[in-house]
Design brief:
This is WIAG-tail domain. This protein has about 190 residues and is mostly beta strands. The protein is built from two helices and eight strands. The chain is about 5% helix and about 30% strand. The protein is rod-shaped, with a radius of gyration of 38 Å.
C-alpha cells in the first residue's frame, strides 16, 4: 500500500481527487447582461452540467414533462400492452380488419370452415358433425351452412356448445356423390 493510500485510509478521504477546470467547478453562471453587483442573484446552469447520474430515482414526474414531448420514437417496441390501453379506446375505425359486431359488452366468437362429404350409393341423407375449435357459451349461436353444389341441400339438425350436427340431402335426379359443406357460426363466447 503506498503512502498516499495509507494517509487517505486514516483520514477516510480519497487519496487523490480529480479537479476539473474552473468552468467545470462553477456550475452556475450569470447572464451576460446582468449587473456586476447582482451577478450572484442570477444562477444558470452551464449546458451539459446535469446528466442522468445527477437525477434521483423518480425525481422527474409527469408534471415536469412538457405536453406533446413524448413521441412514438420514444416508445420501445411492444411497450404498449393490453393493460396500458383504456377500455373502449380502440374503436372499429382503428382496426385494420372488420370485426364481428354484436351487443355492447358481450364478447362475440365467429368460427367458420369447410368440410368434404361423400354419399354412399344407397343413402339420400347424411349427418355431418362439425366440431368447433372454441366452445360457445351455450347453444344459442347462429349457424349457417350451405353446399358447394346445387344437387345438395344442407340444414342444421342440432347445436351444442362444442359442436353442431348438419344434415345434407341429395336431391332427386342428382347423380353427384361428393361435395363441400361450408359453414359459419357466430355467438357469445
Amino acid at each position: 500500500m503506498n503512502k498516499a493510500r495509507r494517509i487517505a485510509a486514516r483520514s477516510s478521504r480519497r487519496p487523490y481527487r480529480h479537479h476539473a477546470g474552473p468552468a467545470k467547478q462553477r456550475r452556475f453562471r450569470a447572464p451576460a447582461d446582468a449587473e456586476p453587483g447582482r451577478r450572484r442573484m442570477y444562477a444558470r446552469l452551464y449546458e451539459d452540467t446535469v446528466n442522468a447520474s445527477h437525477l434521483q430515482h423518480r425525481s422527474v414526474r409527469s408534471e415536469a414533462i412538457e405536453n406533446y414531448a413524448v413521441h412514438s420514437i420514444h416508445l420501445s417496441p411492444e411497450s404498449i400492452t393490453t393493460s396500458k390501453i383504456a377500455l373502449a379506446s380502440v374503436e372499429p375505425e382503428h382496426l385494420s380488419f372488420n370485426p364481428v359486431q354484436g351487443a355492447a359488452g358481450k364478447p362475440l366468437l365467429q368460427q367458420f370452415g369447410c368440410m368434404d362429404f361423400a354419399f354412399p350409393a344407397d343413402e339420400e341423407v347424411l349427418e355431418i358433425a362439425i366440431p368447433f375449435e372454441k366452445r360457445y357459451a351455450d347453444n344459442e349461436y347462429t349457424l349457417i351452412c350451405s353446399s358447394s353444389s346445387p344437387g345438395f341441400h344442407a340444414w342444421v339438425l342440432s347445436r351444442e356448445a362444442g359442436q353442431a350436427v348438419v344434415g345434407v340431402r341429395r336431391l332427386e335426379g342428382s347423380g353427384e356423390e361428393k361435395g363441400l359443406l361450408h359453414w359459419i357460426a357466430v355467438g357469445w363466447s
